Amino acid sequence: MKKVFVGVKLKRLREERGLTQIAFAEAIGLSASYLNQLEKNQRPLTVPVLLRINATFGADMQLLSDGDEARMIADLKEVFSDPASGETVSLAEIREIAASMPAAGRAIVALHRRLRHVTERGDAMAHELGLGAAGLATVAPMPFEQVRDFFYRHHNYFAELDEAAEKLFAEAELVEGEVVEGLARYLEQRHGVRIGVRKPEGEAPSRQANRDYNPKERVLRLSARLDQGQRAFQMATQLAFLEMGEPLNRLAREAALGSPATHALARIGLANYFAAALLMPYRAFLAAAEAARYDIDRLAEQFGVGFETISHRLSSLQRPSAAGVPFFLIRVDRAGNISKRQSATDFHFSRVGGACPLWNVYEAFAQPGRTLTQVAQMTDGRTYLWIARAVRHTVGGYGEPDKTFAIGLGCDIRHAPRLVYSKGLDLDDPAAATPIGAGCKVCERPSCPQRAFPMIGRSLAVNENRSTFLPYAGASV
């Protein structure tokens, strides 16, 4: 373990518990003088001390993780790259904020995001109205953005829902990969809910509901076009609303910040999380994933669901006592819009200017049906293994629209040997990795031929007498 100084974080944890230095030191078996030195960053945190604190205070020690610190550094770099900040902040200063003052760092990031939301909405409204942006009212983040950030903050893991789903799987005597019959039986016996099939009645297929629950009749109607895995997922989602109302509401209130629309969307997202956890109970799914070396197609066949659903579940295996590979997941469309991003670890998804065009997640659209692999290196030197595939959702019928997305699933390169997708890849040669960035506006690579924008905060050296292959090659600090 490298030397880690966590004085401010440790002091904050102690103060949140309402403990004096003496009481805190006694709780973890240290002398008060030693704890005092830790809090003043006169001594680094050691592994034995970290384990003692973790055993005593549990999940709160996530505050000390390198992953969270790296994530905050990336967020703060984005904040201080914005010319609107009015200051040039060095990487050393950013690292100090992230390491020593994480709460202040989170507040800075939150304020910057609110400013960006206000600016973007203001610009859009001004464009529509033909007015200047001055004087427009403050606009909160959109509900789907709040929910997306809520899942991101929780590292896409909710222990309460996961454990409840695993317990219910056993109580309902469900069969792995063949849960439709068991769920139907459980819904009727426990809740008096019957399952019906919703057949088309002149309505366009794209407008038909996949799931339609009538609480008065106690009937759950599922679309006839759904396959077995999709039916099981919709049934499990409805079961979440029927049985998990209190935890769904409590967690949704945390996400909502007073917004009814955000609360409603968060409840749906959390119910979907529970549904996936029910169809793929944690311990059984983790064991299967390890045995299959995280082969998504094999897992999809075993659990009776699709590529995207398996990818989602893989990104949530972060139970402290039995963690899987910490994945991050992204879903994009052909235009580069990111509709989903979930992270069990510290990979940074840019919120400014889209993602990197050199990422294999975009190449997946050109090779439908194929699973692509890529060893990619970020600007901070961290290297990752990425898996990408295009997925298509259709309702059938001539002329009906469909949905096509690319799913990207990535992990730190140190976990790559555990994945079947590392076969044939050179994991040890840094030169073999594709250099990518979080997005052109925050990417520091000066020699990228795919750059769409200069980095925020860099001035342009424009020379009408000279043309180069590299766009914005004259940008400077």
Automatic annotation (TrEMBL):
InterPro entries: Cro/C1-type_HTH, HTH_RamB, IrrE_HExxH, Lambda_DNA-bd_dom_sf, ScfR_C, TransReg_Diox_bact_type. GO terms for molecular function: DNA binding; DNA-binding transcription factor activity. The keyword DNA-binding applies. Transmembrane segments: none annotated. Pfam families: HTH_3, Peptidase_M78, ScfRs. Keywords: DNA-binding, Transcription, Transcription regulation. One of its GO terms (cellular component) is cytosol. SMART domains: HTH_XRE. Residues 10-64 form the HTH cro/C1-type domain. CDD domains: HTH_XRE. Belongs to the short-chain fatty acyl-CoA assimilation regulator (ScfR) family. This is Transcriptional regulator, XRE family. It comes from Rhodomicrobium vannielii (strain ATCC 17100 / DSM 162 / LMG 4299 / NCIMB 10020 / ATH 3.1.1).
